[in-house]
Amino acid sequence: QVQLVESGGGLVPAGGSLRLSCTASGQISGISSMGWYRQAPGKQRELVASITAGGMATYADSVKGRFTITRDTAKNSRYLQMNSLKPDDTAVYYCHAFALIYSATRYDHYWGQGTQVTVSS
User: Fold this and answer.
1) pLDDT by residue (tens digit) across 55-93?
2) Nearest-CA neighbor of 82 among 23, 5, 24, 9?
3) Which tens digit of pLDDT belongs to each residue from 15-60?
4) Cα separations (Å) of 72 from 14, 38, 75, 86?
């Protein structure tokens, strides 16, 4: 299996910054994409940012220009730098990986436990 461990959430005033980290471990043969989703109370989980094995990044329109996803492939880690945070960014942020493990023949989705980000107005 794949374990995703997140860190970096917290409480920040509007306009502030946070950096989320996620590290994948386990019997990983390959990672096709890895990134972050978020879910606010009463809302569906949505993609925030993701980066492919080839380095192509995708962002939700609502975070473009404010959030940046980076990676350290040697460590199987991804980082989300969040700047100019708004109260609407308040949510639980989940690390996600679309990965292949050695015992499997196809890629599958894996999720972290989530980290709370709260932006006060």
Assistant:
1) 999 999 999 999 999 999 999 999 999 999 999 999 999
2) 9
3) 999 999 999 999 999 999 999 999 999 999 999 999 999 999 999 9
4) 28, 22, 6, 27
Residue closest to 91 by CA, chosen among 49, 119, 113: 119
Q: Could you tell me which residues are beta bridge partners of residue 92?
A: 39, 116
Give all strands (DSSP E) within 1-121, no chain letters. Answer: 2-7, 10-13, 18-26, 28-39, 46-52, 57-59, 67-72, 77-82, 91-101, 108-111, 115-120
Residues 94-117: tens digit of each pLDDT:
999 999 999 989 999 999 999 999
Bridge partners of 14? Answer: none
Tokens, residue 101: 């493990």
Look at residue 89 and give its three-state secondary structure: helix
